[in-house]
Amino acid sequence: MIPQYSDHAANERTFLAWVRTGIAVIALGFVVEKFYLVLIELAHAGSLPARKLARLPMPTWETGRFDGGALVGVGVAIIVIASIRFVRTNKMLSDSRIFSDESVRLEIILSVVLTAIIAAISVHLAFG
To answer: What count of other Cβ atoms lies within 10 Å of the Cβ of residue 106?
Structure first.
């Protein structure tokens, strides 16, 4: 049996939860990017009535690429940071020394950046 198995298992569950979150953020980035592409194609094809087309936000492809790319970048960063923290926590769990609590600045910064990107996309879509 692995010493402190429950601690190692909890570390692995936390890592997998962060990986799932990163994958979800990456998928959201792709959806945002494709959504912009669909809006642009609908606008150019003229397949929507003029009154409905006037109510849709008309983003440019570059804007959609930036928004979607930013979300993909944050998702990749989440996975990379989760991997680094998993390995470091695994080493600390295997060590017999006692470690002090670490700050969670990186997680807070990443959460604030992700929230800001999603808020900016929402405002852009709502108010054009």
So the answer is: 13
Q: Residue 58 in contact with residue 43, Cβ under 8 Å? A: yes
The angle subtended at Cα 111 by Cα 28 and Cα 79, nearest 5°, is 60
Tokens of 36: 């912009």
Q: What are phi and psi of 101, to 5 degrees?
A: -65, 145
Nearest 5 degrees, angle CA 77-CA 80-CA 85?
120
Identify the sign of the CA torsion 52, 58, 61, 65: negative
Q: How far apart are CA 128 and CA 107, in angstroms?
A: 31
Q: How far is CA 82 from CA 38, 62, 79, 105, 107, in A?
A: 33, 30, 5, 14, 10
pTM exceeding 0.70: no
Q: Could you read off the pLDDT of 85-122 as tens digits, one per residue?
A: 899 888 888 877 776 666 667 778 878 888 888 888 78
